[in-house]
Amino acid sequence: MIKRLFFLFLGLFLFALGIVMTIKSNLGTSPWDALHIGLIHFLPLTLGQVSQLTGILVIIVSYFLGMKPGWGTIANMYFIGFFMDVIMDNRWIPDPTSWLFQSGLLLAGILIIGWGSFFYLSAALGAGPRDSFMVGAVTKTGYPVWKVRTVIESSIAILGYFLGGPIGIGTIIIALTLGPSIQWAFSLMGKKAQEIEHDSLRIRLEQ
């Protein structure tokens, strides 16, 4: 369990770090981050707090879609937002001063998110709120993952855009490379994400 908790928090920190790097690249963010940044224009909250708030709402919706949260799901919802605020408040990631720096920051962020995903998923304490939502939607509708993910990500991107979120070339690059980045991390470690059996919160409480 100590190893699993270490993997969980290492993964969540790396995930938050990668998100901040993609945001700082100023080339466009992922759809969900565009939504979060758009919402802070209207809410008296930090970026991390908005991420936590949307995470809570997504967990609730996912629960009604039949997806029980795990401890990792709850930790994902809270600590990614927490780490994002810590990283941004302390200015650990400098503002890029050139297009080359922007591009490197974006690609490095995507790579780090891939490793963050590997570590927190390998902890097997529950997938993230947004991944659980996607799986629940696939289960309820019967549509393939790519269709459901496309509808969800496109809808969130459109909403984020109209709220003033940063949609740009980086958004497209993230959409095309984030999946392969996660897959690459799992391949290097000789694991498969679909073979990981996650503990639900209910199971852990009953033991």
From TrEMBL:
The protein's UniProt keywords, in alphabetical order, are:
Membrane, Transmembrane, Transmembrane helix
TM ranges:
38-65, 77-93, 99-121, 156-179
| A Pfam family per the record | DUF6198
Q: Read off the InterPro entries from this record.
A: YczE/YyaS-like
Task: Name the coiled-coil region(s).
Answer: none
What top-level branch of life does the organism fall under? Bacteria
The protein's name in its UniProt record: YitT family protein
- Taxonomy-wise, where does this protein's organism fall, top ranks first? Bacteria, Bacillati, Bacillota, Negativicutes, Selenomonadales
